[in-house]
Amino acid sequence: AGYVWDFPAERSPSWPIRQGMRRIGLDPAPVPGTAASGLVPLVGAFRAAGFERVSTTVIDVGESYADFADFWDAQTPSFSPTTAIIAALAPADRARLVDAVRAIVPTRPDGRVAYSARANGIQALVPD
């Protein structure tokens, strides 16, 4: 059994950052393995590996952060390729990106940022 973020549908926890990048004219590269992380390709891969009784499920996950700064820090870790792209932006473009993302993420009246992400789950049995 396992799961992977639903990258083809842009439902990983980082979707607001990627959508914000598009809004300011950047084209973020697809996450490696995106094409293989949908439900149909996952089933195909498990069946091709010889597993039986393959089944899938969709797992909706709530993402919640104390405020926008907490969200931004969590979504831009130093090891992320997306963070490297953001760091290479001119300061004015980086500010435009922050503003674009801030306009996208749902923010509650108390300042909390909360939205959903989705993972594709799969399980199967090893044949006897």
Q: Could you explain the architecture of this structure?
A:
- The protein has helices at 15-23, 39-48, 68-75, 81-87, 91-104; strands spanning 2-5, 52-65, 113-125.
- With 128 residues, it is of the alpha+beta class.
- Strands 1-3-2 form a three-stranded antiparallel sheet.
- Helix 1 crosses helix 5.
- It is elongated.
- The model has no long low-confidence stretch (mean pLDDT 94).
Write the layout of secondary structure elements.
Elements: E1 2-5, H1 15-23, H2 39-48, E2 52-65, H3 68-75, H4 81-87, H5 91-104, E3 113-125
Percent helix: 25-40%
Residue fraction in strands? 15-25%
Calculate the terminal CA-CA distance, rounded to whole Å: 17 Å
Number of strands: 3
State the strand order across the main sheet.
1-3-2
Rg, alpha carbons = 17 Å
Shape: elongated
Secondary structure tally, helices = 5
Sheet/helix structural class: alpha+beta
The average pLDDT is 94
pLDDT < 50 stretches: none
Helix and strand pattern = EHHEHHHE
What does the largest sheet look like? 3 strands, antiparallel
Question: How is this structure best summarized?
Answer:
The chain is of the alpha+beta class. Helices cover 38% and strands 24% of the residues. It contains 5 helices and 3 strands; from the N terminus they run βααβαααβ.
